[in-house]
Amino acid sequence: MFWFGYVILGMGLFLLGHYAGIRYIPEFVELVVARTLNLSKDYSDSEVEDDENVSFSMGDDSGLKESNGFLFIEDEVLQIEYQSQDSILGLFQC
């Protein structure tokens, strides 16, 4: 008899979540990406201060992916640390 109340409540919660996602998620993603870039830049800058470290930046042939990182020697082993990012949206990739 009152089943339509559950449907309306469920639909209302879905629409509220959808609105919040459209309204606030892009700003949150921009904030997170900016914070991550700043942290990675600060980390790589502190690591590159030594003479033993070499930083690099490169892209793929299609221009859709950029990689930044640095090389250093630790315990007689060459270490390579890099971070790849989509050059169009700026999303980080594994």
Topology (elements, then pairings):
Elements: H1 3-48, E1 54-59, E2 65-74, E3 77-86, E4 92-93
Antiparallel strand pairs: 1-2, 2-3, 3-4
What features would you describe in this structure?
With 94 residues, the protein is of the alpha+beta class. It has one domain. The protein is built from 1 helix and 4 strands. The protein has one helix at 3-48; strands at 54-59, 65-74, 77-86, 92-93. A 4-stranded antiparallel β-sheet has the order 1-2-3-4, with helices on one face. The termini are far apart.
Keywords:
94 residues, alpha+beta, single chain, 1 helix
Task: Evaluate the radius of gyration.
Answer: 22 Å
Any low-confidence stretches, pLDDT <50, length ≥5? Answer: none
Summarize the main sheet.
Answer: 4 strands, antiparallel
Report the span from N to C terminus. Answer: 52 Å
Number of helices: 1
Shape: elongated
Strand order of the largest sheet: 1-2-3-4
Strand content: 25-35%
Q: Write down how many β-strands occur, each being a DSSP E stretch of 2 or more residues.
A: 4
